Amino acid sequence: MEESVNKAETGSTSYSTDIRALNERIEKESAFIDLLRMEMDKVIVGQKYMVDRLLIGLLADGHILLEGVPGLAKTLAINTLSKCVQADFSRIQFTPDLLPADLLGTMIYNQQKAEFVVRKGPLFSNFILADEINRAPAKVQSALLEAMQEKQVTIGDTTYPLPTPFLVLATQNPLEQEGTYPLPEAQLDRFMLKVVIGYPNKEDEKRIVRSNISPSGMLKPSPIIKPEDILKARKVVREVYMDEKIEQYIIDIVFATRYPDQYKLAEYKHLITYGGSPRASINLALAAKAYAFIKRRGYVIPEDVRAVAHDVMRHRIGISYEAEAENMTTEEIITGILNVVEVP
């Protein structure tokens, strides 16, 4: 990518000026990212990776599926982000007896007015934490995922738009699988990112303990920006320059999951049952642009694509029984693809 930018600079003067001007503009427009990180760091310790992925989802208008054991600050992270953005936050605990109306809302009878009125559900917020989404039956999951895709909800005969920005962070517990309803592949594909988070290191955990037992209590984040600023930033993210070679690189990565034998990866052919959909290509490009934006850069480089590839692709590749027998994971398959596909 740097080579293509250099070529642009040595070629057309006006084109190089455009690239330089775009880079300067995005560096200015993304200044709030550092402030946002600083405020979140006051509360969220040792989860920089998760925080960055939350910002990518927020800036690229994509929802996130988060997998991790309990107690890793998943709820705290999205709650803190909502306070920094001065936005509404709802936490929905998914259980086997949950109904779609518990999310979307319903019609209730008003005796004084002698008519039915709408009572909107918790889904009408900017930030939604869908806790343990795989504990609710398919009907509830479908209602949530339809709202995520359409950004609207129908109650009775009326359709209501959801507030903007609208970000869903759904969590899955990788430990307890009894009594769960795993998300179908078609629904998994609607999440831009699937982020797997682990335990903090010793130093970070020491800081976590200190902040929680301190007499003054945990620090509270300050509001940094407003929801309308996020909507403005999303438009700027889409203006981040992506060279045609980077586009081809993204297409090659996704096609390598579908036709591995065409990319000198014949050994993966019997390990992959299905590869990434066109939505994978779209989300990989958008996530790479958002990653470049949070790095305060006006153009995408191959490292941006590689940085988000695992999060975008890990839930979009099906592995066969042979792969499971060989203890081959989607992580290893994605890494193998990234090592083989030619970098521009």
TrEMBL record:
A Pfam short name: AAA_3
UniProt-listed Gene3D superfamilies: Magnesium chelatase subunit I, C-Terminal domain, P-loop containing nucleotide triphosphate hydrolases
Domain ChlI/MoxR AAA lid: 271-335
All copies of domain ATPase AAA-3, residue ranges: 63-193
GO molecular function list: ATP binding; ATP hydrolysis activity
Keywords tagged on the record: ATP-binding, Nucleotide-binding
Family: Belongs to the MoxR family.
UniProt name for this protein: MoxR family ATPase
